[in-house]
């Protein structure tokens, strides 16, 4: 595919039959999707058009939207989700506003890209950015990230697909993180390490 589909082409792709991938539209629109390798024309009558594997992937990924500001304002002015451990993680009214804006942007992406418009379930954008998505959910709920000045949560990657680990130095803080992520649509389980330390395994809920 040399360029993204137009809004009209995108609507045809999004309206495809979820089981067969059959699409409908004008002959010109369908022919263009064939050129883009997002659809193919069946050789037998009635010569219906269907999504190709690439077309299916595009449909399942949802429309490309500007992501919510992506993880603490840095020199480039971009927002950065605090995973915990940042030396300059300073709470401020400006930071609180940035977090609220980022969280509202994420909810809008959920509304527009989840098939049923659900706001209580993570979307594909989050599943592609697990650590940042989990950290944003925690910070948006008022949880404090770990810093050089104070204890707090830490979000790290794991070898497991679609899962992150969340650590907190005290049991109450860990329980609060578990409740926050569960409310944000994550599936959470608590585990104990060999030395008795407790931590969470969290993954985006799909249903």
Question: In a nutshell, what does this entry contain?
Answer:
With 207 residues, the chain is α+β, with helices and mostly antiparallel strands.
Per-chain topology:
Blueprint: H1 7-14, E1 22-23, H2 27-35, E2 39-41, E3 49-51, H3 53-61, H4 93-113, H5 124-127, H6 130-140, E4 154-157, E5 164-167, H7 171-183, E6 186-192, E7 198-204
Antiparallel strand pairs: 1-3, 2-3, 4-5, 5-7, 6-7
Helix pairs in contact: 4-6
Task: Walk me through the structure.
This protein has a four-stranded antiparallel β-sheet, covered by helices on one side. The chain has a three-stranded antiparallel β-sheet with strand order 1-3-2. The two termini are 31 Å apart. By secondary structure, the chain is an alpha+beta fold. The radius of gyration is 21 Å and the shape is elongated. The longest helix is centred in the middle third of the chain and has 21 residues, at 93-113. The protein has two domains: 7-61, no CATH class; 93-204, no CATH class. The protein has helices at 7-14, 27-35, 53-61, 93-113, 124-127, 130-140, 171-183; strands at residues 22-23, 39-41, 49-51, 154-157, 164-167, 186-192, 198-204. Strand 4 and strand 5 form a beta hairpin.
Question: Which short descriptors sum up this protein?
Answer:
207 residues, alpha+beta, 2 domains, 4-stranded antiparallel β-sheet, 3-stranded antiparallel β-sheet, 7 helices, 36% helix, 14% strand
**Strand residue percentage:** 5-15%
Structural class: alpha+beta
Order of helices and strands: HEHEEHHHHEEHEE
Q: Give the total of beta strands.
A: 7
Mean pLDDT: 85
> Could you say which overall geometry the principal axes of the C-alpha atoms support?
elongated
- Low-pLDDT parts are 64-76
Sheet bearing the most strands, described?
A: 4 strands, antiparallel
Counting DSSP H or I runs of 4 or more residues, the number of helices is 7
- The helical percent reads 25-40%
Total of domains: 2
Strand line-up in the sheet with most strands:
4-5-7-6
């Amino acid at each position: 595919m040399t360029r993204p589909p137009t809004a009209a082409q995108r609507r045809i792709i999004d309206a495809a039959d979820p089981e067969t991938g059959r699409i409908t539209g004008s002959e010109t629109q369908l022919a263009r999707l064939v050129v883009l390798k997002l659809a193919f024309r069946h050789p037998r009558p009635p010569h219906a058009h269907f999504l190709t594997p690439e077309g299916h992937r595009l449909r399942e990924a949802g429309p490309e939207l500007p992501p919510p500001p992506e993880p603490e304002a840095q020199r480039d002015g971009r927002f950065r989700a605090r995973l915990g451990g940042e030396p300059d993680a300073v709470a401020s009214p400006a930071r609180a506003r940035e977090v609220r804006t980022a969280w509202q942007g994420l909810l809008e992406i959920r509304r527009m890209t989840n098939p049923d418009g659900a706001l209580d379930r993570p979307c594909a954008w989050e599943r592609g950015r697990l650590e940042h998505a989990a950290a944003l959910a925690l910070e948006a709920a008022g949880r404090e990230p770990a810093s050089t000045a104070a204890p707090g949560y830490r979000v790290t990657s794991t070898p497991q697909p679609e899962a992150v680990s969340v650590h907190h130095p005290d049991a109450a803080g860990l329980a609060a993180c578990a409740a926050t992520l569960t409310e944000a649509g994550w599936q959470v389980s608590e585990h104990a390490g060999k030395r008795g330390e407790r931590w969470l395994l969290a993954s985006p809920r799909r249903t």
